[in-house]
Amino acid sequence: MNFVDIKFLLSVHSLKQLPEPTLPEIAFAGRSNVGKSSLINTLVGRKAMVKVSGKPGKTQGLNFFEVQGSAYFVDLPGYGYAKVSKGMQSGWQTLITSYLETRSTLSCVVVIMDLRHGAKAQDGQLIAWLQQNKIPFLPVYTKADKLSGNARQKHAAALDAGHNIKSSQHIMFSAKNSMGKHDLERALASFVEIG
Question: Do 112 and 83 form a contact (C-beta atoms < 8 A)?
Answer without folding.
Answer: no
